[in-house]
Predict the 3D structure of the following.
Amino acid sequence: MSPLPRVLLVEDNAIYREALELLLGLRDDVEIAGSVVDAETALEHCATACPDVVLLDYRLPGLDGVEATRILLERFSGLAVVCLTGLATSREREALVEAGAFACLTKDQELDEIVAAVHGAIAAVRER
């Protein structure tokens, strides 16, 4: 792992994805490993870019957040997943945690909270 957590953004909303990528890119405590629009592309990207954490939108075309989380963590043992959602039910949030997501945050949370979850996810992976 690199000294900074390498983060892959997976978000189908271009405006939100680009804004988050810009804001995270301005920080000195994370590194952007890439930015993709769906889970299938994220799987391909993880195989080559080796991110530490995937910031994953819950509602994506194709695989949803639960399915994507499960597959990502099965294929890449050193990876952590933090989900972001505009809206998720308590059942959906529970399913994400059961699939192995470190956290499920809302998209309107403060950037510092999102970055804290990224760092918390890295710490959790290191403790495995």
About this structure: The radius of gyration is 13 Å. The chain has one domain: 6-127. The mean pLDDT is 92.
